[in-house]
């Protein structure tokens, strides 16, 4: 009897949780109606400007800071609408999360990542791309940062409106570079830093694809292709969850605890290893209970990968918040510093209110404009199930976390899309390999015609060209727009 009462209470709790997610989905559908979402976004942008006025205080430069805060909030909304879809798209496409659940998780972890671990990359955006000392006066530097913010926000807004998968990181880096060139010539740009960033744009999608493909190969070899799939999953799924927990714990120790106590890299790795081991041990009985009564087939494995997929999506949202908050508030932090007491020569101090604008802007942008792009990322490049989506999310999370730890503003769009392509191309290679093995065992079977092989491709080739073209054009387009806006703003401001 007591057991039945306990189960009834668990069911009631589950019903309430599902009801909350259902209400969130209904609210998301409501704000997606014409004019409602733009109206809410406008209110947030104006509120950010009001908050900046209160936080900065009444000085001769308050109006400029308010306008910069409005631009930063506008940029953060666009990042949330565009980039956050890359984090939750795989989980939603694999039916492991509802749209409401994805938005709730992303909002919490994006905000946490931005506030806890966003500082290093903000410093790279605000000071690493152009040298403030080469620009001249603080006033010219401020107009350059304003132009960079507005140009990148306008470009991402345009690209999102027409459905082009551009990188918000490309946009802000191109905007800062273009404004710096317009203000002080090509000598203002830190070209070694730009070369490092440009190299990361090539390395990050390739690395994301390779890591995702490697995880998928491991899952196929150790679980899917085994005679007893359920028994293999009981062994390896807890290990995979432990890997995620360890990576997250090590990164959080480096970023969060380092602001309180001195944590070395080896110490962070030790913390990650211990917590990863604990999580692995804890998950063994959980996965064992989940697997009871499941049939020995691939469809049953989707149930067991639900937990690691949700955890990896949350981890990726945390990493994205840490990395891409810089795109919204890096130039804003530099403006506040230049117009405050520090000037452009001092190290950039990032006020809490500046980080709050970026953090909440990411979440608002996702909630207001993200569902359509989430569906596109989750289903239109290649077909995803929970195992493939887990590989994409974990690969992207590990790559973005590494980049954020190094202070390198890589593109989360590149990494996530590269991971999706890596999974798709690995599936194609693996399917072709298995088909050749079957034909080798039965040589009398007719070979597949080239046209039929092209039709069976598991990755949509049109998306490769579209995404590649969008990546190439973003930096020069944002730079050109930023340069033009710099001259216009300077003429207006005097």
From TrEMBL:
Lipid bilayer topology: Multi-pass membrane protein
Bilayer-spanning residue ranges: 35-56, 63-81, 140-160, 172-191, 197-219, 231-254, 260-282, 303-322, 350-369, 389-406, 412-429, 464-489
Pfam family, one: PHO4
This protein's GO CC annotations: membrane
GO molecular function terms noted in the UniProt entry: phosphate transmembrane transporter activity
One BP annotation, GO: phosphate ion transmembrane transport
Keywords, ordered alphabetically: Membrane, Phosphate transport, Transmembrane, Transmembrane helix, Transport
Subcellular location: Membrane
Coiled-coil features, chain-numbered ranges: none
Principal location listed in the UniProt entry: membrane
UniProt family annotation: Belongs to the inorganic phosphate transporter (PiT) (TC 2.A.20) family.
Protein name: Phosphate transporter
């Amino acid at each position: 009897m007591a057991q039945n009462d306990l189960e009834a209470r668990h069911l009631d709790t589950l019903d309430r949780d599902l009801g909350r997610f259902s209400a969130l989905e209904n609210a998301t559908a409501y704000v997606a109606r014409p004019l409602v979402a733009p109206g809410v976004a406008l209110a947030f942008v104006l509120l950010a400007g009001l908050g900046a006025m209160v936080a900065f205080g009444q000085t001769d430069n308050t109006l400029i800071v308010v306008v910069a805060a409005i631009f930063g909030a506008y940029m953060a909304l666009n990042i949330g609408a565009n980039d956050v879809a890359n984090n939750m798209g795989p989980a939603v496409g694999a039916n492991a999360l509802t749209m409401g659940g994805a938005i709730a998780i992303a909002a919490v972890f994006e905000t946490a990542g931005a506030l806890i671990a966003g500082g290093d990359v903000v410093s790279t955006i605000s000071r690493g791309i152009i040298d403030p000392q080469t620009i001249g006066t603080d006033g010219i530097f401020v107009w350059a940062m304003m132009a960079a913010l507005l140009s990148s926000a306008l470009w991402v807004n345009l690209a999102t409106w027409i459905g082009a998968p551009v990188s918000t990181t490309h946009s802000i880096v191109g905007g800062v570079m273009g404004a710096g060139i317009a203000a002080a010539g090509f000598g203002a740009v830190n070209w070694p830093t730009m070369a490092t960033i440009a190299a990361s744009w090539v390395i990050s999608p390739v690395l994301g694809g390779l890591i995702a493909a490697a995880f998928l190969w491991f899952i196929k070899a150790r679980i899917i292709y085994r005679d007893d799939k359920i028994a293999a999953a009981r062994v390896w799924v807890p290990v995979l969850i432990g890997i995620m927990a360890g990576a997250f714990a090590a990164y959080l120790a480096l970023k969060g605890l380092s602001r309180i106590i001195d944590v070395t890299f080896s110490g962070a790795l030790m913390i990650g290893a211990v917590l990863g081991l604990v999580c692995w041990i804890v998950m063994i009985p959980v996965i064992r209970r989940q697997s009871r009564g499941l049939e020995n087939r691939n469809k049953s494995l989707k149930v067991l990968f639900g937990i690691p997929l949700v955890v990896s999506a949350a981890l990726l949202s945390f990493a994205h918040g840490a990395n891409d908050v810089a795109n919204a508030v890096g130039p804003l932090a530099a403006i506040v510093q230049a117009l405050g007491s520090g000037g452009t020569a001092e190290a950039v101090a990032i006020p809490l209110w500046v980080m709050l604008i970026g953090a909440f802007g990411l979440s608002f942008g996702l909630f207001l404009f993200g569902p359509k792009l989430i569906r596109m990322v989750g289903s239109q490049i290649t077909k995803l199930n929970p195992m493939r989506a887990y590989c994409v999310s974990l690969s992207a999370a590990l790559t973005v976390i590494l980049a954020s730890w190094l202070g390198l503003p890589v593109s989360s769009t590149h990494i996530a899309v590269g991971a999706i392509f890596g999974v798709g191309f690995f599936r194609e290679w693996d399917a072709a390999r298995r088909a050749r093995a079957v034909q080798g065992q039965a040589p009398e079977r007719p070979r597949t015609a080239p046209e039929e092989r092209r039709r069976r491709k598991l990755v949509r080739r049109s998306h490769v060209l579209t995404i590649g073209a969008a990546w190439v054009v973003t930096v020069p387009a944002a730079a050109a727009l930023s340069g033009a806006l710099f001259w216009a703003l300077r003429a207006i401001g005097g």
